[in-house]
Amino acid sequence: MVFNPEENKWLKLKEGVIRTPSTDVVICKLDPFFGEKNHKAFVTSIKREPTDQLRIIKNYILQKHLDKDYPEILTCNLNDMTTYECKSVYKWQLGWSKLLNIGIVINPPYEAEVLLDYFKSVAGTLDKVNKKGSIIKPSTHFLGIAVDIGGGSNNVDDEVKIISEAMKRDKKLGIINVVIERDNNCCHLNCWKIL
């Protein structure tokens, strides 16, 4: 069976989104669930490269007015290095860590250590753990197995309800898990890789 999300009526691709076979299946299978609720939504990102991730981080630095505190991030390249607390780190790493510190959850362009306090909720509890010093892996978008679905005017609440119901009704949907990114106004889906 051929899955072509460009033919979807309800869950549409935003212009410029780079498709992959793994995500095509999920997006096409989700379309009728969005149709049942008469709800249009958009896939805002699938396949990304490390340079795309750095661009997104730079944009958040500007949006959050952190460019005066972390000016080096605006002109750095992916592999540019600096010294922080006697260790060699990427020039973007401190600014990226600050985004995590203020609640903007975003993966780094490359595997990297969190340099500042970053309190993350422990699943199923009210507890939080400080991830400072932890290594965070790059985004699953780099592997082409992630889908971001943009939220509407009430953030991602409608989209989450539809996706949750779809996952209950179709166990072979191809979604591993869902991450709600409220600051990004999107629902991030990690999908099974099609070999």
Structural write-up:
It is a single chain. The strands form four sheets. A five-stranded mixed sheet has the order 1-2-9-11-10, covered by helices on one side. Strands 3-4 form a two-stranded antiparallel sheet. A two-stranded antiparallel ribbon has the order 5-8. It has two domains: 5-47 and 141-191, 2-Layer Sandwich (Threonyl-tRNA Synthetase, Chain A, domain 2); 50-138, no CATH class. The chain has 195 residues and is of the alpha+beta class. The protein has helices spanning 21-36, 50-63, 72-75, 93-101, 157-169; strands at residues 11-13, 41-45, 81-84, 87-90, 112-113, 119-121, 128-130, 135-136, 146-150, 175-181, 186-191. It contains five helices and eleven strands, in the order E-H-E-H-H-E-E-H-E-E-E-E-E-H-E-E. The model has no long low-confidence stretch (mean pLDDT 93).
